[in-house]
Amino acid sequence: MGNALRFLCAPFCSPSTESDSADHPGVTAANVSVSALAHDLFNFEITNKVPQDLSKQVASSKKTQRIWYTKLSVAWRESRPPPTTPEEASRLVIETLRRHRKADIEGLLAYYGLPPTEVPPSQDSQIQGLKFELHTLPVDARAVGDGDTLNVYVSTRDPRESAVVPRDVQMEASERSNARARRNYDRADELHRQIIDAGYRMIQVENEEILARKYRIRLRGIDAPENKMPFGKKAKEELTKVVQNKCLRVLVFDEDRYGRLVGDIYCNDIFVQEVMLKKGLAWHYKHYAHRQVLDKASFL
Question: 181 Cβ partners below 8 Å, 6+ apart?
Fold first, then answer.
């Protein structure tokens, strides 16, 4: 831990110069944002806690934020020398988190007041037919319908969602919070039913309630047996095991006739459809998505 302290904070613990703040020796107006990031990374290594108010700037869960800070702590320690200017810190953040959401990277930079150096678009943005991308809250086991269908919830703090939340739902969520504060739980339950009927739900995440939008997802390119068919129950159990309590990344390509979004699902960079095929619990649905990666997985 001593080495971590030196690597994280060394640039900001040198003797003060004339340009330094009198109250914060070694920290200038130019590098105060870098110092704040270095301090939070060092604190994360000790406590495994991310800044409490970071969620005001980003949509991802605290669990995902901890993944960022783990990666950033390692990258900062391994950099020689560590960043000393806002521009250098921005580049380190962008390079380290380049596979994460662009909006989250920009939110993290804004949180520390680091310059918004251009964030490269995700490689997936170049995939033919891709319409948009969802980042879900942790998935409940009960949300899995069968081996190729599940329900997911996306936080309304997500920039894509925040602009389209119906006003009635916003008011009901606020009124419900007030009802719970007054211990009027019957009224709170009534309001929650109204929120659910509108396609939203209050989701408990790490001792915090989050208003989230519901999406029905059909796994693109595979077909699993129905629950009552042979191996149907096993297929559902396997999909549940893969996604339960995980935040998912869903690349949406289409909507089927049942109103479900058809998409590719990734869980911690694991391609879920590929897992189901390799386990022998789904078929490659070539009629709708003839894809080489699924072909290979189905023959393993």
Answer: none
Site of tokens 């699993």 = 224
CA distance 1 to 114: 26
3-state secondary structure of 153: strand
Q: For residue 145, what are the CA distances in angstroms to 104, 119, 125, 232, 294?
A: 30, 37, 29, 11, 22
C-beta of residue 40 within 8 angstroms of C-beta of residue 48: no
pTM comes to 0.60
Closest CA to 207 of 80, 19, 61, 60: 61
Give the count of alpha carbons within 13 A of 277, CB side only. 24
Task: Pull the structure tokens for residue 106.
Answer: 């920009």
Distance CA 44, CA 66 (A): 8
**DSSP string covering 169-201, please?**
HHHHHHHHHHHHHTT-HHHHHHHHHHHHHTTEE
Name the residue among 82, 85, 228 with its Cα closest to residue 146: 228
Buried b / exposed e across 40-49, counting CB within 10 Å, b at 16+?
bbbebbeeee
**Residues identified as active-site:** 218, 226, 260
The rounded distance, in Å, linking the Cα atoms of 27 and 30 is 8
Residue 213, token pair as written in the block:
């939008």
Q: Over its length of 300 residues, how does the chain's per-residue pLDDT go in tens digits?
A: 434 434 444 444 443 333 333 333 344 555 688 889 999 998 898 899 999 999 888 888 888 899 999 999 988 888 878 888 888 898 889 888 877 888 888 889 999 988 876 555 555 555 778 888 999 999 999 999 999 999 999 999 887 888 889 999 999 999 999 999 999 999 999 999 999 999 999 998 878 889 999 999 999 999 999 999 999 999 999 999 999 999 999 999 999 999 999 999 998 878 999 999 999 999 887 655 555 555 555 544
